[in-house]
Write a structure and sequence with these properties.
The chain is about 40% helix and about 25% strand. The protein has 11 helices and 11 strands. α9 (about 200-220) runs antiparallel to α10.
């Protein structure tokens, strides 16, 4: 029940009467948010129980790990300031970090946390400590990764979708321009796919797509290689730092591997009654600076090659090599 004095304070707008004898350390330890109180030189003054649960180190051992607690895999100015605070090297006049970072733990794993930092003053108004709060956001990050994968993945084949492919192409092309390295792009179009769908039905058509996608997955194994379904019966493969000969070899293998699947398609005369593919490959390299940042020319070149392969009856490979100059 609220006391009369508190009711009066609330109605008048005055400060609430201060309660004495409160054990604030107990209140802090009841929270699931981790708190580390650090002197300006990085010495831990207080470590909450939630910190021990989150990171796995006892209060006594945590001090030995503060200097390398923050995992810095990409540039992050706020994470770097946090690292300085934990190492006792921070400038109190620097902006206080409020960011999401990954921390190392005693369990050998990394965890995502939301960080909020406050600078405390003593009774004379001088800065004397940092209060660093950590809140676990691992579950939130898992959900973000899940929804990101859903928006970038083709639901039938499990390959990347068109959006993910175009993002990767733009990124890798920008890198290729800086490095003046070769980039290869392969387009794979299933011959007479509509006839297969009409003859056997949508379930058989999906099974065909899944088998072709599996073949492409087995073909492109380097970490930077990308295989995607970019149209109803078309796939795209991005091969960074791959020369023309490599693109030709992979294209020829893909054409034969799809035919060797032996998927029935009676209306595909070029494949003698089995599923085949028209394959177009383009390789490009910028040998001078000043070339357009757009990757449209290599995309158009690959599409033109696969169009030529289809026009000539399908079940074949067409390739082109472009040297781009300013």
């Amino acid at each position: 029940m609220i006391s009369d004095s508190i009711k009066e304070a609330l109605s008048s707008g005055r400060d609430l009467p201060r309660q004495t004898g409160i054990d604030f350390e107990t209140l802090v330890n009841l929270s699931n948010d981790a708190l580390v109180l650090l002197a300006l030189d990085g010495r831990p003054v207080f470590t909450s129980l939630a910190t021990e649960r989150l990171l796995g180190w006892s209060a006594g051992k945590l001090a030995d790990h503060l200097s390398d607690l923050v995992y810095l895999d990409t540039p992050n100015s706020e994470a770097e300031i946090l690292q300085h605070i934990l190492s006792g090297k921070a400038d109190p006049s620097s902006p206080l970090p409020r960011t999401d970072v990954q921390l190392r733990t005693a369990f050998g794993s990394l965890i995502w946390v939301e960080v909020n930092t406050h600078l405390l003053r003593d009774v004379s108004g001088q800065h004397h400590a940092f209060a660093v709060y950590f809140r676990s956001i691992s579950k939130r990050k898992e959900l973000e990764r899940f929804f990101e994968s859903v928006t970038r993945t083709d639901p039938i084949t499990g390959l990347f979708n068109r959006r993910a492919f175009e993002d990767s192409l733009n990124r890798e092309w920008a890198l290729a321009l800086r490095e003046k390295s070769h980039t290869s792009l392969i387009k794979v179009s299933i011959d007479r796919f509509e006839a297969l769908s009409e003859h056997f039905g949508p379930t058989a058509a999906e099974d065909c797509l899944i088998k072709v996608a599996s073949t492409l997955k087995e073909t492109v194994r380097r970490p930077a290689d990308i295989a995607a379904r970019t149209a109803s019966s078309e796939f795209s493969i991005l091969l960074p730092r791959t020369h023309e000969v490599g693109a030709q070899t992979i294209s020829a293998y893909i054409q034969m591997a799809i035919q060797d699947l032996g998927i029935p398609n009676p209306d595909n005369i070029a494949g003698h009654g089995v599923v085949t593919a028209s394959v177009g490959a383009a390789c490009a390299v910028a040998d001078k600076s000043g070339v357009s940042d757009s990757c449209e020319h290599i995309l158009a070149a690959a599409e033109n090659c696969v169009f030529q392969a289809r026009q000539e009856g399908g079940n074949r490979v067409k390739t082109v090599m472009n040297v781009l100059t300013a």
